[in-house]
Amino acid sequence: MSNILITGCSMGIGFATALELARAGHRVFATMRNAAGAPRLGEIAAEEHLPIEIRALDVDSDESVRACFSAIDSPVDVLVNNAGIEAHGSVEELPMESLIAVMNTNYFGTVRCIKAVLPRMRERRSGCIINISSVSGRIASSPLGAYCASKYAVEAISEALAGEVKPFGIRVAIVEPGIQNTRMAQDIAHSNGSIYPHSVRFAGLFRAALANPTPPEATASVVRNIIESGTWQLRHLSGPDAEPYVGWRASQSDEQWVDWSAQDDESWYAAVERDFGINARPLPATSTGCADQ
After folding, report:
1. HSE (side-chain half, CA atoms, 13 Å) at 26
2. How far apart are CA 256 and CA 292, in angstroms?
3. Which end of the chain is more exposed for a tag (fewer CB within 10 A), N or C?
4. What is the pLDDT along the chain (293 residues), one digit of tens a residue?
5. 55: enclosing H helix or E strand
6. Which residue in 59, 81, 65, 184 sits closest to 130, CA to CA?
7. Active site residues
8. Is the Cβ–Cβ distance between 175 and 236 less than 8 Å?
9. Inter-residue contact 5 to 56 (CB < 8 Å)
10. What value does the CA radius of gyration of the chain take, rounded to a whole number of Å?
11. In the beta sheet, which residues pair with residue 130?
């Protein structure tokens, strides 16, 4: 069994992955920014007698990363970089602070943790680094420009890293979930208001997708399979919608993709319904609830 450190375990994919791996017998260091702020993981671990140790780790902080990794007495066999945040809005309207924060957590946070484990993995000539990206790491859409940029960066550094460390027996994998039932997806399902139409459109798309949600356990299962199978495959899609989305984007030229995003509302909603069978149109004004609540 492996010693596995996972970032961003307070909820969602990180939470589900910590439980999946611990239930499989792995020793899990489940890290989160505020270890006291999400007690449920610890409660489940105690109830089921799971090998989960909860540690504080803020991936935005060089010092926090150093302190967390240096306090672990055993070699980390597997690092799962999952911690992430999202800020949606047009490029014009998103404050620079939000753009920088998303990149700092999603990209630089991933790199900080990679650099923390690599020396010992390289010395042992073994290890596995799994970076949780997204289909948004291959499909850039408004109003998710900031998030997509951070995930494109994760994909790029992962590709470069994979070639660097394979001679040392270190595996690198990228996991690309589609729309899954996490708080991040639920937040996107609510438009934050914009002078551009894309925020309302994507809120409808996510709301419709979450009406029949894919749970984060789908990605937890992919992560476990990567660890236990010993695969050297670089990219792994997660969830039933991931492959259709990526294939759909790949079938279009860049110019067609830009035109698809730039079309008027009625044409866009009709295209989504035609291509995916999803009604992403805004809810009637009299509605008092959302499908994902």
Report:
1. 24
2. 31
3. C
4. 899 999 999 999 999 999 999 999 999 999 999 988 789 999 999 999 999 999 999 999 999 999 999 999 999 999 999 999 999 999 999 999 999 999 999 999 999 999 999 999 999 999 999 999 999 999 999 999 999 999 999 999 999 999 999 999 999 999 999 999 998 989 888 877 799 999 999 999 999 999 999 999 999 999 999 999 999 999 999 999 999 999 999 999 999 999 999 999 999 999 999 988 999 998 876 443 433 32
5. strand 52-56
6. 81
7. 147
8. yes
9. no
10. 19
11. 80, 173
At residue 124, what is the residue type?
A: R
Amino acid letter, 146: A
Tokens of 251: 């079938």
Residue with tokens 């069978």: 277
**Which residue shows structure tokens 């010395």?**
123
Q: What is the set of domains in the chain, with CATH numbers?
A: 3-182+214-252 (3.40.50.720)
Provide φ and ψ at 50, rounded to 5°.
Answer: -90, 145
**Which DSSP helix (H) or strand (E) runs through 53?**
strand 52-56
